[in-house]
């Protein structure tokens, strides 16, 4: 190999490094540093100290984690999030996939329907929550329609129903984005597959089960992971719709407790500890999901 | 994930700023001659207080061309306390904030953000001279120093809608609301007559400060002026505390108050017939509600001149980020002198925390009789206790209150007993 060629490769590598440098710097500054800081703060008796003030911030080991976990509200908040995810994630996948399949087949008013599902996603959360409050409050539209059948206590102050309402609201708000992801996948499935299936006598439902669902597997993995991450960080809805995690903690979320402890109560160490626990929780659930999928795939492979 | 990252990034940004600026801050609070010069101050964004702030700053600037004061509204945030906490960490807090909440002071002291007023030669004498030593003592920190000047109070009382009372067949000018039984009877009548959707609507949400406007004023009244904790111990696990808890528990059990969050001011929107609030709200009710005010009820009733209530006061502090601290102190004294307190009273209706308020501004109260009751009440107020971890203490108290009193899932006596233990351990940490 000539020197010129070797030099060329080196300079190409250098150019490549220069090209990725801005994004690498962005990743380090926006993601890596805060995560490391988060871990650091979680093991210190941290104070948002004034510049120049001599405020001791001793290493306290796992004390913040123990303090966070000893709060029954935190344990409750993880269960609440579990309940939320059990409703939100499957509903997101089923509705997202079905709506995308239907939207792909539409021949008229395509643009209108695609935008209609997307509108809640781009609308400010506070406005969407305002609408849901109007629907589900004690004197709201739903209770008016239901009359004597309205739940007592009402939706948002009913410890069994409040999280269900929130899960439905978040599903509805986020759906447009996931429909868009699925739609991109559906449009990539060759029409010839459907035509062949149709000639073989497969109906619409069979085609959906045997062609659309398997073809969208990778997108389903993406949607599940994203819905899981967004859901686990639930904050705005319990903060605004159910008066800060009410009724009686039924919609309390870990992110809301991070705000309470880390910001309102001036205990950043405890807030950061909850943040780390929440991250581990998301990784664990996402990892379990990935494991289950791999198991299913390998079984399918064995059957084939 | 995005919110978690935002939070962590914000924490990291605060920490980085702190580290970067560590070497160049004016820091410290001790020794040497204090310097004078231009300063920046923040005041509340309430319209009446903005007018007062602008007028007071203009007056000072006219007389002190070499020590100009720049007045700004506290930057928007979910609460003033959070904005100030962030400003302390970032090193860009102003010299003075005319809107401190006594519950936030211990946290700001821990951050190293506040200058003890004891550092000024006449600091202690001015604070105690203006408000009286007994009142001032409530605002002293656990280290025995004053980090806040008790500025003004908003003694909370029961506001009622005269039109709704009339529609319910109740006397709108002399409402009978002094005992719990009176209150209960009035509430029943207001609801059964259809005059109001709710008798009263304190927010049933879980913010740490919400008990200052439901349980706490009634407890202060029932106990004859006890704060929530005294000498490191909870005071409320007794007959007075239980009476108040049972009163509110009954109000919620009978649906006389909503358990659901109300978006807005239920009293101003005429959804509820009563509210527990201080005189600052009078301006916001003008032209909307035909209101009257009475002291908060007690179980057996008490003469009005013996009833204590929650002060809902605001204080002023000098921040360590301030370089020209002499000017800050001089402006603080100027803005809280007798004349400017008078201006504050007339422009905002809020009560300067001065001893002998009714007699000092006698002509104002003669001209504005609706405020006289508040001025009299201002002499018998109690603030939130100045303890470590005050916000944590109130949050734990609130969580238990919601469970037991609002949602009835725990007997009140059990909650009061548990809360007394939690409160004591919170403030001891």
From TrEMBL, chain A:
Cleaved signal peptide residues: none
CDD domains per record: TM_PBP2
Swiss-Prot/TrEMBL keywords: Cell membrane, Membrane, Transmembrane, Transmembrane helix, Transport
A GO CC annotation given for this chain: plasma membrane
Residues annotated as domain ABC transmembrane type-1: 78-289
Protein location: Cell membrane
Family the UniProt entry places it in: Belongs to the binding-protein-dependent transport system permease family.
Protein name: Binding-protein-dependent transport systems inner membrane component
Species of provenance: Catenulispora acidiphila (strain DSM 44928 / JCM 14897 / NBRC 102108 / NRRL B-24433 / ID139908)
Higher taxonomy: Bacteria, Bacillati, Actinomycetota, Actinomycetes, Catenulisporales
From TrEMBL, chain B:
GO MF term set: maltose binding
Record keyword Signal present: yes
Gene Ontology CC terms: ATP-binding cassette (ABC) transporter complex, substrate-binding subunit-containing
Source superkingdom: Bacteria
Pfam family membership, one: SBP_bac_1
UniProt-listed GO biological process terms: maltodextrin transmembrane transport; maltose transport
Keywords: Signal, Transport
Signal peptide per UniProt: 1-22
Family stated for the protein in its record: Belongs to the bacterial solute-binding protein 1 family.
Protein name per its UniProtKB record: Extracellular solute-binding protein family 1
């Amino acid at each position: 190999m000539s020197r010129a060629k070797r030099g060329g490769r080196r300079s190409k590598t250098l150019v490549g490094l220069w090209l990725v440098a801005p994004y690498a710097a962005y990743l380090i500054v926006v993601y890596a540093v805060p995560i490391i800081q988060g871990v650091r703060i979680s093991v210190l008796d941290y104070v948002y100290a004034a510049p120049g003030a001599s405020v001791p911030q001793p290493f306290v080991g796992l004390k913040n984690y123990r303090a966070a976990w000893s709060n029954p509200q935190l344990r409750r908040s993880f269960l609440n999030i579990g309940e939320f995810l059990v409703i939100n994630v499957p509903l997101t996948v089923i509705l997202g996939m079905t709506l995308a399949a239907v939207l792909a087949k539409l021949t008229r008013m395509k643009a209108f329907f695609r935008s209609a599902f997307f509108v809640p996603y781009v609308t400010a959360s506070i406005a969407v929550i305002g609408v849901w409050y109007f629907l589900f409050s004690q004197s709201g539209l739903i209770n008016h329609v239901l009359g004597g059948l309205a739940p007592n206590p009402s939706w948002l102050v009913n410890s069994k129903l409040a999280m269900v309402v929130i899960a439905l609201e978040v599903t509805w708000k986020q759906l447009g984005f996931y429909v868009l992801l699925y739609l991109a996948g559906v449009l990539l499935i060759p029409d010839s597959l459907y035509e062949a299936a149709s000639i073989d006598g497969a109906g619409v439902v069979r085609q959906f089960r045997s062609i659309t669902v398997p073809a969208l597997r990778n997108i389903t993995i993406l949607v599940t992971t994203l819905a899981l991450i967004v859901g686990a960080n639930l904050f705005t809805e319990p903060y605004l719709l159910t008066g800060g995690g009410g009724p009686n903690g039924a919609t309390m979320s870990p992110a809301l407790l991070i705000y309470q402890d880390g910001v309102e109560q001036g205990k950043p160490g405890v807030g950061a500890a909850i943040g780390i626990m929440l991250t581990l929780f998301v990784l664990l659930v996402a990892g379990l999901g990935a494991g289950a999928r791999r198991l299913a795939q390998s079984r399918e492979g064995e059957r084939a | 994930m995005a919110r978690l990252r935002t939070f962590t990034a914000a924490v990291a940004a605060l920490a980085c700023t702190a580290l970067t600026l560590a070497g160049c801050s004016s820091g410290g609070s001790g020794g040497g001659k204090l310097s004078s010069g231009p300063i920046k101050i923040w005041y509340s964004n309430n319209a009446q207080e903005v007018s007062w702030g602008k007028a007071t700053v203009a007056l000072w600037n006219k007389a002190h061309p070499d020590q100009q004061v720049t007045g700004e509204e506290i930057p928007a945030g979910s609460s003033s306390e959070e904005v100030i906490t962030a400003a302390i960490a970032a090193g860009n807090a102003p010299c003075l904030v005319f809107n401190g909440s006594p519950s936030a002071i211990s946290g700001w002291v821990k951050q190293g953000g506040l200058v003890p007023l004891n550092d000024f030669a006449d600091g202690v004498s001015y604070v105690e001279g203006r408000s009286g030593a007994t009142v001032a003592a409530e605002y002293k920190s656990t280290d025995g120093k004053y980090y806040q000047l008790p500025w003004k109070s908003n003694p909370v009382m029961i506001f009622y809608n005269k039109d709704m009372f009339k529609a319910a067949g109740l006397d709108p000018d002399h409402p009978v609301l002094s005992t719990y039984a009176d209150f209960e009877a009035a509430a029943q009548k207001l609801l059964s007559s259809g005059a109001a959707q709710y008798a009263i609507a304190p927010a049933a949400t879980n913010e740490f400060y919400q008990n200052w406007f439901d349980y706490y004023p009634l407890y202060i009244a029932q106990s004859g002026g006890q704060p929530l904790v005294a000498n490191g111990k909870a005071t409320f696990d007794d007959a007075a505390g239980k009476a108040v808890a049972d009163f509110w528990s009954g109000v919620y059990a009978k649906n006389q108050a909503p358990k659901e969050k109300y978006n807005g001011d239920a009293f101003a929107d005429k959804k509820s017939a009563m509210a527990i609030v201080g005189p600052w709200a009078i301006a916001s009710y003008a032209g909307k509600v035909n209101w009257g005010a009475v002291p908060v009820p007690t179980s057996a009733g008490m003469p009005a001149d013996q009833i204590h209530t929650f002060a809902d006061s605001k204080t002023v502090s000098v921040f360590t980020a301030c370089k020209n601290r002499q000017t800050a102190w001089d402006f603080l004294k100027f803005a809280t002198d007798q004349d400017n307190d008078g201006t504050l009273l007339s422009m905002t209706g809020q009560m300067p925390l001065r001893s002998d308020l009714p007699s000092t501004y006698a002509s104002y109260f003669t001209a504005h009789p609706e405020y006289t009751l508040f001025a009299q009440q201002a002499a018998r107020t109690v603030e939130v206790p100045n303890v470590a971890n005050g916000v944590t203490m109130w949050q734990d108290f609130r969580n238990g209150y919601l469970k037991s009193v609002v949602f009835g899932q725990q007997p009140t006596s059990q909650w009061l007993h548990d809360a007394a233990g939690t409160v004591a351990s919170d403030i001891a940490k």
